[in-house]
Write a structure and sequence with these properties.
The complex is a heterodimer of chains A (408) and B (587). Chain A is mainly alpha-helical. Chain A is built from 14 helices and 3 strands. Chain A has one domain. In chain A, 65% of the residues lie in helices and 3% in strands. Chain A has a 3-stranded antiparallel β-sheet with strand order 1-2-3. In chain A, α3 runs parallel beside α5, α9 crosses α10 and α10 runs antiparallel to α11. In chain B, strands 2, 3, 4, 5, 8, 16 and 17 form a 7-stranded mixed β-sheet that branches. Chain B has a 5-stranded antiparallel β-sheet with strand order 10-9-21-20-19, with helices on both faces. The chains are: A mainly alpha (408), B alpha+beta (587). Chains A and B meet through α6, α9, α10, α11 and α13 of A and α1 and α2 of B.
């Protein structure tokens, strides 16, 4: 691909893929939580998982579009894109610290991950780690690509970024091992993509491995999960219960699935069937059709993210696009790896599909940013690099105004 | 803006693209894992899922009835309900318990205690076998935490009268004894099954694939027993036992020509609804399970063998030694002293000495052969379980005294049923018919699956002429002028033979003084006997009487009189011919 012919990419496919994932998620979450003893319309919509998920998706779509619009001025102003990510990052770290402090945060499943607000009947909660994930991606992009940073330098590129990753992993890791794994992974990928030196990456990798080991040893339940993973059949009613049930759910679907709504494992056998283990339920009911579609859509998302990255104008946008795509792709991969017992159990959701609000909305905002990058793609590069002026100076679109100011 | 030139940009792009492509391959790699799960791991996992998801309920098959020969119900199953609580589904246990207590006429505390006693149980039975009204009241509660479980209850309308034949069923409804046991498979049918897919709290979601097998109800058994004759025998036995202060008694009424048993009774009896209340000894169908030494009733069979083997002629006179006969080391005595008598006289007067001489003349081989030909030592083959074969020692085990003992009914044992069947052979022209108690097997809808219409001939025990001579001449005179005169009834000529056997100690060797088994076996009407009747009364009070002719013959008389009337057998015209010359010449 030669840059001279770069006309940028259209954000449409990205939006389609994201909507498709959310739509599948809504259907399957509804199926996974459908009660048999109560008529669907007898329950207030906001009390059903379906209703709540629909509301989250609506908020998510609005957030996505807002983010797509609001990200543009940020991307275009060097000062903003230098400072805003760091401000967000600091807020996120502060919230994480607050969650860690007992008494303020609510406990869920033995882990402190939530900020709660609103009346008990509506039960709104917010997971700061979801914000932190994306704030860190933005902060890394800023630290590695702005204010004269050089990823190949230790002090001006690698160290601050590595510290940002380390602090985030440290704060989240105590309570949420899965998310911290994703953050570490995404951080590593961004450092690698930015072009950091191998020696630095190796150093960070070994330090990270030590840190992860400490986190593992700190929590007995993580060790138990690890042991259970080595042989899930040694204790299928105890530590191995969830992995075994997840596999049984997938296997009882077979190749073509039992049919939408006819799954059985969701009726109390498979814990977290509508959240972290939604993929198993999808496979049980729709087999390779639904399961393949999910994997295909996530791959398509990564591919579209890659294209967006490739066509992005600036290193900042490239790193941002890489980070966002990697976060969503890696989380999906880890989730499917967990439900297929390819890795030990750790609680991460399937992006856009699992029931839940914080993650969905944050990911929607991230996709909005990606859309914004896509919409800006191709333009400035063409202007600054085209020696022959073969390409059109201005890409079609509503945002030409910002593009022109940037050129100055 | 950008850090370096296009080269650095390109390098960054390529690095980032590399990272993301790796991520894509990771995702596709998980597809491989899913293939592995759905192929290699699948059987074990599917099996686990099915095991935890599927639950099945048994749909009990209805157990068939036992009917008597005329269709009267001897055993029938009714469905009743047990009431149970599933505490896990109760929203308000206290209210529930109070509501239930009113309907079950129980105290709420007792119900609550029952639930508390098994804190983790999902199935606490609070009342068993409730009636339909209660069932309706419970059902009207419409509380998911309360359930009714079908339990079949076996009822025996004839009760004690036929308990030894029908047997009984256990708590699970399966046959434990008698016809209930022998025809268990036919009566029980095959239970059906309903399999449902359940959630993790064992609540049914929907029916499993191939989840329904309908039950196949059990068939019915029609007995040859006639409940009315059975009643007659029971009452006659009870009367006999009462009159002679006896310990117990058994009775058999059967058709000599077809082998059908019309009545088979043991007194005292028991309640088949609650058999555990009595000893096992009382519950045994002693007609088929308890062999006894028959005493003088054996003499008819020995006489048949003697005549058949031409060991003596019917007219030959035998010296009965006036009541005392020394042979070898042994002295045999008669109740009354007799001189010279022919065979008919010996049987009529039941002379032990005469019979001993006949037996000695026959020799042990002929005696043994005679007994075996009448079916002794072999199970009669009736359908009742637990039948005993009796004991006829092989000839090589016979001592020098055995031939004498056997001649008047010792050192050989037989069940009352074997005795009745063998006696039937004499009155049936010498042909031994297999006795039976089952007439038909019906399907659940009443269709006839098997009917045992024709008699099963075991063998010819004795030639027709000898059998006729013995029946018409000898055994008739036993009743007309001999030891069995108590069995005479109006309108019919009766033939029969008495027997009085000494009983051994229950727990050691030797004969117990003043312990007797009093037997009478008879048949009527003499010309073409319709029924053979056997009555054995055990341990009558010897101060009142103990001879078979004294103790058991009156019972036989009563049974014969009532049974023949019930069966509407026309009285014989030639009753006046008592003592008339022989109509049938002996061989």
């Amino acid at each position: 691909m030669h840059l001279e012919t770069d006309n940028g990419i259209h954000p449409g496919p990205l939006i389609v893929v994201t909507f498709a994932l959310m739509a599948m998620g809504l259907v399957m979450v509804t199926s996974a939580t459908a009660p048999l003893d109560v008529a669907f319309w007898d329950v207030a919509p906001w009390r059903t998982v379906f209703g709540r998920q629909a509301i989250f998706i609506a908020i998510g779509i609005v957030s996505m579009l807002l983010a797509a619009r609001l990200a543009l001025p940020v991307l275009d102003r060097p000062r903003w894109r230098r400072q805003l990510p760091l401000v967000l990052f600091v807020i996120a770290l502060a919230l994480l610290a607050v969650v860690l402090h007992p008494g303020i945060a609510g406990e869920l499943r033995g882990s402190q991950r939530w900020l709660r607000f609103g009346p008990e009947s509506v039960r709104l909660g917010f997971q700061p780690s979801e914000l932190a994930k994306l704030a860190m991606v933005a902060a890394l992009a800023s630290l590695l690509a702005e204010r004269g940073a050089d990823p190949r330098s230790f002090h001006r590129g690698f160290l601050p970024a590595a510290l940002a990753v380390g602090v985030t992993v440290g704060l989240i890791g105590k309570e949420d091992f899965g998310t911290s794994l994703i953050i570490a992974g995404v951080g590593g990928m961004m450092l690698f993509a930015a072009g950091c030196r191998w020696i630095h990456l190796l150093l960070m990798g070994s330090l990270g491995a030590c840190g992860m080991s400490v986190l593992l040893i700190m929590a007995p339940y993580r060790m138990a999960r690890l042991t259970a993973f080595r042989d899930i059949w040694s204790d299928p009613r105890g530590d191995g219960y969830q992995p075994v049930q997840s596999l049984a759910t997938i296997a009882s679907g077979g190749w073509l699935g039992k049919g939408l709504g006819t799954g059985v494992q969701k009726y109390g056998y498979l814990p977290e069937g509508h959240t972290d283990f939604i993929f198993s339920v999808i496979w049980e009911e729709t087999g390779i059709v639904g399961g393949g579609l999910i994997i295909g859509l996530v791959c398509a998302f990564v591919w579209l993210g890659l294209r967006t990255m490739w066509h992005a104008r600036t290193p900042f946008e490239r790193l941002l696009a890489t980070g966002i795509t990697a976060t969503i792709g890696l989380q999906a991969a880890l989730n499917i790896a967990v439900v297929t017992v390819t890795t030990p159990t750790t609680g991460v959701s399937l992006p856009f599909v699992s029931a839940g609000g914080s993650g969905l909305i944050m990911f929607c905002i991230a996709v909005g940013v990606l859309i914004a990058i896509a919409r800006r793609s191709g333009r400035e590069e063409v202007r600054t690099r085209s020696p022959a002026g073969a390409a059109t100076p201005c890409a079609p679109g509503t945002l030409g105004l910002f593009g022109q100011t940037l050129g100055a | 803006m950008s850090l370096g030139g296009g080269l650095i940009d390109l390098r960054q792009r390529r690095l980032a693209a590399f990272v993301l492509v790796v991520l894509m391959f990771l995702l596709l790699g998980l597809g491989g894992r899913l293939v592995y799960i759905n192929s290699v791991m699948r059987p074990r996992l599917v099996n686990l899922a099915r095991q935890q998801q599927e639950g099945s309920t048994v749909i009990p098959a209805r157990r068939g009835m036992i009917l008597d020969g005329r269709g009267r119900v001897a055993a029938v199953s009714r469905r009743m309900s047990d009431v149970f609580i599933d505490p896990a589904q109760a929203t308000d246990l206290n209210t529930l318990v109070h509501e239930l207590a009113v309907r079950l006429n129980e105290s709420p505390d007792a119900l609550l205690a029952a639930v508390r006693r098994r804190p983790n149980s999902r199935y606490v039975v609070v009342a068993s076998r409730v009636d339909e009204t209660t069932e309706e009241a419970i059902r009207a509660l419409k509380n998911p935490a309360v359930g009714l479980a079908d339990t079949p209850v076996r009822t025996f309308p004839l009760g004690e009268s036929l308990a030894h034949v029908t047997g009984w069923t256990g708590r699970d409804g399966h046959g434990m004894e008698g016809i209930e046991l022998a025809y268990e498979k036919h009566l029980a049918g095959r239970d059906g099954q309903r399999s449902t897919i359940r959630d993790s709290r064992r609540r049914a979601l929907w029916r499993a694939e191939d989840g329904f097998t309908p039950p196949a109800d059990g068939g019915h058994v029609v007995l040859t027993i006639d409940a009315e004759i059975q009643r007659i025998v029971n009452e006659a036995l009870a009367e006999g036992i009462r009159n002679f202060e006896a310990e117990s008694g058994v009775g058999v009424v059967m058709s000599p020509t077809t082998g059908e048993v019309f009545a088979m009774a043991c007194v005292p009896s028991f309640d088949p609804h609650d058999p555990s209340k009595v000893d096992a000894e009382v519950r045994r169908n002693r007609v088929v399970t308890d062999p006894v030494e028959p005493g003088s009733t054996i003499k008819g069979f020995i006489a048949c063998g003697a005549l058949e083997g031409k060991h003596l002629s019917p007219h030959e006179l035998i010296d009965c030694h006036m009541g005392t006969y020394h042979t070898g080391s042994r002295t045999i005595t008669d109740v009354h002293p007799y001189g010279m008598m022919n065979l008919a006289g010996i049987i009529t007067k039941s002379s032990n000495i005469g019979m001993t001489i006949v037996g000695e003349r026959m020799g042990k081989h002929a005696l043994h052969d005679t007994l075996r030909r009448f079916g002794f030592g072999t199970r009669a083959g009736i359908e009742c379980p637990g039948e005993d074969a009796g004991l006829v020692y092989p000839v090589r085990h016979w001592s020098s005294l055995t031939a004498q003992s056997v001649s008047f009914g010792y050192e050989v044992t037989m069940t009352p049923l074997q005795l009745a069947a063998a006696f039937s052979a004499i009155v049936n022209d010498g042909v031994l018919i297999k006795p039976r108690v089952v007439k038909q097997l019906l399907g659940p809808e009443g269709d006839v699956l098997a009917a045992f219409d024709s008699p099963t001939v075991v063998r010819r025990s004795v030639s027709s002429s000898v059998a006729r001579y013995l029946a018409d001449e000898v055994l008739v005179s036993v009743v007309e002028e001999g030891t069995g005169h108590e069995a005479k009834i109006e309108g019919y000529r009766v033939l029969g033979k008495t027997g009085t056997a000494k009983l051994t100690y229950k727990d050691r060797k030797g004969y117990e003084p003043r312990a007797y088994l009093s037997t009478f076996i008879g048949a009527a009407p003499a010309r073409a006997p319709e029924v053979v009747v056997l009555v054995m009364i055990r341990r009558p009070n010897p101060d009142i009487g103990y001879y078979g002719g004294t103790v058991s013959a009156p019972s036989v008389r009563r049974i014969l009189a009532e049974t023949l009337a019930y069966l509407q057998v026309p009285p014989e015209e030639s009753v006046a011919m008592v003592g008339a010359p022989a109509q049938t010449a002996p061989p």
